[in-house]
């Protein structure tokens, strides 16, 4: 039996391969920030760099089918806030933060869609 973790890892690998073919360079995987009282932990699945220097924070979502709104619909506003919080924490490490954007790679069954600038930090 394949675990949910194994499926997630497979989805991340597939997304990463797709993004690398598009010319992005991997900076870091699974960047995590601990939660606190009343605040859940936060994570960015993939952090990549575009050729122009833009830092791209990528959320990878995978579903076996597109039912229930599909993978892209599962990136809720609450999930977006956690991704933004992790990205802000990551950027604190950099002397001069580069331009950034938040992308989503949605995998529904065999289909893969890359949504550039899927949401903004607000």
Automatic annotation (TrEMBL):
Gene3D superfamilies: 3.40.1350.10. Keywords: Endonuclease, Hydrolase, Nuclease. InterPro entries: Restrct_endonuc-II-like (IPR011335), tRNA_endonuc-like_dom_sf (IPR011856), UPF0102_YraN-like (IPR003509). GO terms for molecular function: endonuclease activity; nucleic acid binding. It comes from the Bacteria. HAMAP family: UPF0102 (MF_00048). PANTHER family: UPF0102 PROTEIN YRAN. Belongs to the UPF0102 family. This is UPF0102 protein C1702_03950. It comes from Caldimonas thermodepolymerans.
